Amino acid sequence: MLFLDLDEATSSTDLVLDLGTKDGRKTAEIDADVAAVDLVFAEDRSDELSYIRGDGTNLPFADNTFDAVYCDQVLEHVKNEEDFISEIARVLKPNGCLWLAFPNRYAVNSPHETPWWISLVPKSERWAALLSEDEASYYINHEWPVGPTRARQVCNKYFEHVEFASLRLRDEYRDWFVGNKRTSVYPPTTSGKSFDKILPAILAIGHVSLFMYVFERLWPHSEYVCRLPKS
What superkingdom does the record give (predicted)? Predict the structure, then answer.
């Protein structure tokens, strides 16, 4: 989806890093200059961005370069999440913002069309857990699932303010999530409509710290807004 937080927070003079972009379509509509970084790019990528081949743990940019960083569905492919997050903090300006989203390792979800439980299986056992040899090879060599507790721990180390933003974003951009407005290349989902029915009740008790602690650790798609990178 679009970086909804950035869509309102950035201006045409800002510089945004789309880290792990693949094809650039998630940030092509942002009103800012976007540098798209990945190890491999899709052939049908958007023409709106500037593409730079690079590794997220060793970015080819100077300190304090970007106003914001967008990173969606990338953290679970990073072997050392601390090197990755620290590098993001380094290239952000002092008042910069990171939007980070990834599938929760411990939730009942199915990232990349694999069995939902595969992230709980030790890597050494995944050959037996999956029928396809190609799938097993990919999830052993290119997948390092992460849970929200570990992600928050690392983000807190490198940012002054870290917010679990999944609930807030679904409330503020409810029309997008339930499909009433098509503001992204991705289609609306029926699960979004179902969630919309219970969202008011969830928000009503969202101020209860214990509830939010549990919700953050069980919600299948973790979204964090990290501000003020530490020097």
Answer: Archaea
